[in-house]
What we know:
Blueprint: E1 3-7, E2 13-18, H1 21-24, H2 30-44, H3 103-119, E3 123-126, H4 136-146, E4 151-155, H5 160-166, E5 172-176, H6 182-187, E6 190-194, H7 195-206
Parallel strand pairs: 1-3, 3-6, 4-5, 4-6
Antiparallel strand pairs: 1-2
Helix pairs in contact: 2-3, 4-5
Amino acid sequence: MPIAGVYDIENNKVSEVALNDAVFDAEVNESVLYEVVKMQLAARRRGTAETKERGEISGGGKKPWRQKGTGRARSGTSRSPLWRGGGTVFGPHPRDYSFKVSKKVRKKALVSALTLKYRGNQMVILKDFPLEEIKTKKFVEVVQRFGWEKVLFVLDKSYPVLEKSSRNIKNVKMMRSEGLNVYDLLKYEHVVLLEPSVKLIEGTLTS
């Protein structure tokens, strides 16, 4: 069972916590990571691209010129795909790109992502993050103290002061433990877990 240090915002180790090896030290499955990230990105696609086919273009009812004798190629309508302003052949239409993977696969991908962060020393557990008032400067000082450049915070509950102190900082994201997802875990270089969120994550992924 892996043991991780718990730190305060001064970057001092204050205690240790035993992590569930089924969540933070499991087998890394790259194929499920790929599948789940692909699912998340597909779900974000708007799918609103639209083109008009030949039958949807106004006009073009009259034959542009007679069939023979003009020296030009024959043409039946000015709405032909070959003409400027004509319809599009096999163009895109609104569609839903999303697809689903099983709950078991999503859990396995989350476990793989958390394991990668733990083994790569890219995961930090904080005892808490006390802020009495909304102070972006104070928050930035903590981030710089730990050397985080692109960081994801995973919270166990709502922390309005903390969340508002960080909302204008680039490459910092706050997220509740129930919203934890593979894409954000892989996107952000470092992951910071508030200590209470560790048990919540373990409970969700081992149930």
